[in-house]
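dumping this here before i forget
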Amino acid sequence: MFICYFCVNINFMRILFVFLLVSYGSFAQNVDFEKVGVKSAKYDFFWGNDISGNNYFATSNNLYKINEKDTLNYTNNKFGKITGVETFNMLQTLVFYKQNNAFVLLDAQFNEINTTIFSEINCEFLKPASQNELWFYDSLSQQLGLVNLNSNRIKLLSNPINKTIKHAHSDYSYLYWIDIENELFSINKFGKIVSLGKVPPFERVIFSDKSDLFYVFEDKLYYYSVENQMSVNIAIDEKMIENFFYKDGILSIFTNYQISTYKIKK
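structure:
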């Protein structure tokens, strides 16, 4: 019996192409977005928002927490430029100052509740963790770890990570990071590291959760599913995006002194 392997391969490729086309179409249709608002925001930088709808901005070294009724301000000139602000917990806003290897925790009224300057480690970033701890990457040892805010105990969790970390994100139980080769990893509080695959090239990126992220590349905004390894372009009006933030189905985009908000359904 004669079998045409060339014909079999051609048919297989056709079936595979149709399958990928249908899969991508189905994936793309599952990402809906709708513009729901635009507000003026005459600040230099947008850090994000919290569960109560407060927006966090900065101008020079002044940090602002703003809602429709009130504006709170925090300034700390002794630690230098603000490098990072974590707004996940509105009762403990984390403000990181990389230049002086220091951080400040602010309560809901923007009062200082913890001020720390590290001497044992040199932090590249700080991210919130559970049980009153913070994730960190120490550039001296090139290791990831946790610092306890009650005892100031520092615990190194990983072997040295030699590749530069481009972006990091935490959801309390896990820390996620993307390295210089766009490889995505996670680590839990026991030090177990898992490779989650490769992400597309990006200029800015934010996580929506452990399996999804949004990124900007060449002035276009994309949604990317880590699980499906697929990207979908989100056609928005805004250009020259300076920063953006995602929380609870709302994507906030900061550009040209204004905040545009989109409702995202996945």
